[in-house]
């Protein structure tokens, strides 16, 4: 089990550490609800150094990525970030990822921690192009600064241009004695936020530098990260996306280009029989991953992929993948919880929207 560089710092903040994707990760510090509210109202920092960073560079790097990602790489300018997916030959999702265009023929792929080895092996196996693929995950650390006060925090840290950084863009800058720090306006919470990439050797300095700024900053664990992303309806790989769930089925058609061919493109666009929907439970209970969803005839029509009691809404919400035809024929939905049918209704997500 790998330890994050900042493990001792997490322990100093009373973090509860758990095993996740081969890492010891801070699941919470002082409580999921309080951490969740703090990000919605103020600013929190997540140590997400378990995420993977894979560099693709060379004369044909863009051609290579056009072949293996679902989104249109040609739209990217230097300094842009793009949300995308890898799909297999059956149209299922190998992984979802962020693509950073670092330079003309250089890209950074940020992939899920649980898929680093799988993604790197798969990318290497399909590389018939003039480009290099380097896995820099073990040398890279990542902090996510999220919340409505995140811009002010980073401005006070010395990032004078932070208010000019547009959504899904990045730039390289200096923070204190650190040079060539990559700062992007991205995140997984639904709040305005930023992500900062540095070398492992620099992460302790960055952590201390950020906490030296007078602010409402608090460390936030993975549990609150999950409730925050679920309120927004964001996909989590292994739940809403998998090798057997396509981006189209996951309502991600907006990141699947119809203007190019990519691995699995033909299968990805086949008429899908399933889709993700949002649920609100109308009776007491929490729908968890794997719980079954039934129609008004008590026929099985799908399964819950993620569910929680929403701290912001104080309601039980869930995402489920269901049969489209059966869904269209039913008026009532039920989630089976401990052998009881709990009434639910279909609702659109994001479940939470800022006023």
TL;DR of this structure?
The chain has 355 residues and is an alpha+beta fold.
Explain this structure to me?
This protein is α+β, with helices and mostly antiparallel strands and 355 residues long. The protein is 20% helix and 35% strand. The protein contains nine helices and 20 strands. It has helices spanning 7-12, 32-41, 61-68, 116-125, 150-156, 203-211, 222-232, 265-268, 324-328, and strands at residues 2-3, 16-20, 23-28, 43-47, 52-57, 81-87, 93-103, 106-111, 132-135, 140-146, 170-175, 178-184, 193-199, 217-219, 274-281, 292-294, 300-310, 315-323, 333-337, 340-347. A six-stranded mixed β-sheet has the order 11-12-13-10-4-14, with helices on both faces. Strand 16 (292-294) and strand 17 form a beta hairpin. Helix 2 packs across helix 7. The chain is globular, with a radius of gyration of 21 Å. The termini are far apart. The relative contact order is 0.15.
Strand line-up of the largest beta sheet: 11-12-13-10-4-14
Indicate the mean pLDDT: 96
How many beta-strand runs? 20
Subunit organisation of the chains: single chain
Distance between the termini: 42 Å
Strand content: 35-45%
Order of helices and strands: EHEEHEEHEEEHEEHEEEHEHHEEEEHEE
**How many strands, what sense, and barrel or not for the largest sheet?**
6 strands, mixed
Q: Indicate the radius of gyration in whole angstroms.
A: 21 Å
Count helical runs.
9
Low-confidence stretches: none
Which class do the helix and strand fractions yield? alpha+beta
- The percentage helix is 10-25%
Shape: globular
């Amino acid at each position: 089990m790998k330890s994050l560089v900042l493990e001792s710092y997490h322990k100093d903040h009373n973090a509860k550490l758990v095993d996740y994707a081969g890492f010891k990760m801070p699941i919470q510090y002082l409580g999921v609800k309080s951490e969740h509210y703090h990000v919605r109202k103020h600013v929190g920092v997540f140590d997400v150094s378990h995420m993977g960073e894979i560099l693709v560079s060379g004369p044909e790097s863009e051609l290579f990525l056009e072949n293996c990602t679902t989104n249109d790489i040609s739209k990217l300018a230097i300094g842009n970030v793009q949300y995308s997916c890898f799909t297999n030959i059956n149209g299922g999702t190998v992984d979802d990822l962020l693509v950073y265009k670092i330079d003309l023929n250089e890209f950074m792929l940020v992939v899920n921690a649980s898929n680093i080895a799988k993604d790197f092996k798969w990318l290497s196996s399909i590389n018939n192009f003039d480009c290099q693929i380097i896995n820099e995950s073990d040398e890279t650390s990542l902090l996510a600064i999220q919340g409505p006060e995140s811009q002010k925090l980073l401005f006070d840290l010395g990032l004078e241009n932070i208010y000019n950084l547009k959504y899904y863009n990045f730039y390289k800058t200096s923070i204190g004695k650190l040079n060539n720090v990559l700062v992007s306006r991205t995140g997984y919470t639904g709040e305005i936020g930023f992500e900062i990439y540095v070398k492992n050797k620099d992460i302790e300095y960055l952590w201390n530098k950020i906490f030296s700024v007078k602010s409402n900053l608090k460390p936030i664990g993975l549990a609150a990260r999950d409730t925050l992303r679920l309120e927004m309806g964001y996909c989590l790989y292994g739940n809403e996306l998998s090798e057997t769930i396509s981006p189209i089925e996951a309502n991600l058609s907006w990141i699947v280009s119809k203007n190019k061919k990519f691995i699995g493109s033909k299968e990805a666009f086949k008429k899908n029989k399933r889709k993700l929907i949002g649920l609100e439970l109308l009776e007491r209970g929490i729908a968890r991953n794997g719980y079954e969803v039934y129609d008004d005839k008590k026929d099985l029509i799908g399964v819950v992929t993620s569910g929680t009691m929403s701290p912001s809404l104080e309601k039980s919400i869930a995402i489920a993948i269901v049969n489209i035809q059966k869904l269209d024929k039913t008026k009532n939905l039920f989630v089976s919880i401990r052998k009881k049918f709990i009434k639910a209704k279909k609702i659109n997500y994001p479940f939470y929207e800022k006023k």
